[in-house]
Amino acid sequence: MAQDRRFRLLKKRFRRLAIAIVASFLGWYFLYISLSAFARDFMAYPAVGNINVALLLGILQFVSTFVLAWRYTRYARRMLDPLSAQLRDEAELRQAEQDRAEQVLAERRRIENWTPSPRHGRRRR
C-alpha cells in the first residue's frame, strides 16, 4: 500500500494542508502573544468604546481557530476522503481475498493430513 502512488498523493496532500494550517495558526498566535508582550500601547488602544485592540485580537483568535477547522474539513471532504475511501476499499478487498486464500490452504492441509473437521457443539457419548 505504501508504494501506491495514490497513497503517496494522499500523504502529500495531508502533509501540505497540515503544515499550512499549523503554520498559520501558530504564526497568528505568536503574533498575538508578541504584541501583548512588546506592544502594550498598541494593544491598549481603544477600538470601540471600552473595547481595546487586545480584546478584539483575542476574539479573532477564536474566530480564526474555527475558520481553520472549517477549512480543514472542507478540504478533507473534497481532496482526502474520496481518495482515502478508495484506498481503504481496495485494501479491504485484498485482505478478504487473502483471508479466503488462507482458508482454502488450511482446508487443503486438513484434507491432506486426513484430519476430520472439528465439530462444534457436538459430543460423542
UniProtKB/TrEMBL annotation:
Keyword Transmembrane in annotation: yes
Keyword annotations: Membrane, Transmembrane, Transmembrane helix
Listed InterPro entries: DUF485 (IPR007436), MFS_trans_sf (IPR036259)
Record field: transmembrane: 20-39, 51-70
Pfam families in the record: DUF485
Domain of life, per lineage: Bacteria
Full protein name: DUF485 domain-containing protein
